[in-house]
Amino acid sequence: MALLAAQPLFAQDQLPPAPYAYKQLEDPAQEAKAQRLMETLRCLKCQSQAISDSDAPMAGDMRHQVRTRIKAGEDPEAIRAWLVERYGDYVSYAPQNKPIMWPLFAAPLVILLLAAVLLRGRFRKSIKPEGGE
What we know:
Elements: H1 2-13, H2 28-38, H3 57-71, H4 76-87, H5 102-127
Helix pairs in contact: 2-3
């Protein structure tokens, strides 16, 4: 029963790869544009490789989508936006400038400012003369 229930999980990996998963575009300029874009997109299964380097079936499907859309004349940034919309911000190596990310970028500055204030107070106390008025 367990093998029968797990059969759909194995079926996904047994599908043939998408046509442009491992085949380059005929036009070298379009292929170069697709390669540049694929190097900036993260494989969701590997999580540390770009889709251009990954052998995961999902990365192959993503490469196929990128090449197909580049071949159709779509702008690489529009393709990136579509993939981010579909898979989330994690798919792109390029950080997005969104309001939810501002605390992440501001945190180091706040920590440095707090450290400077604490160190200033510490040095002021140690410099004061010991003897009275």
